[in-house]
């Protein structure tokens, strides 16, 4: 009976992806890391935009 309760909780959860991008600062020229948590379908669009 516990397996049914766990299985029903897992169906409602969302799948998220953490993306990390290295960005060069225009002022100092140093690189910084920008992190974002999003849905897997949005990762490529986020990485391609400047």
Report on the structure:
- It is a single chain.
- With 50 residues, this protein is of the alpha+beta class.
- The chain has helices at 2-11, 43-48, and strands at 17-24, 31-38.
- The radius of gyration is 18 Å and the shape is elongated.
- Residues 1-11 have low confidence and may be disordered.
Terminal-residue CA separation: 50 Å
Shape: elongated
Arrangement of strands in the largest sheet:
1-2
Tell me the helix content.
25-40%
Order of helices and strands: HEEH
Low-confidence stretches: 1-11
Q: Over the alpha carbons, how many angstroms does the gyration radius reach?
A: 18 Å
The tally of strands reads 2
Structural class designation: alpha+beta
Tally of individual helices: 2
Our estimate of the beta-strand percent is 25-35%
Biggest beta sheet summary: 2 strands, antiparallel
Mean pLDDT: 78
Organism: Sungkyunkwania multivorans
Protein name: DUF4295 domain-containing protein
InterPro entries: DUF4295
Pfam family, one: DUF4295
């Amino acid at each position: 009976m516990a397996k049914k309760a766990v299985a029903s909780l897992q169906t409602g959860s969302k799948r998220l992806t953490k993306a990390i991008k290295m960005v060069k600062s225009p002022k100092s020229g140093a690189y910084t890391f920008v992190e974002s948590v999003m849905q897997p379908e949005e990762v490529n669009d986020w990485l391609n935009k400047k």
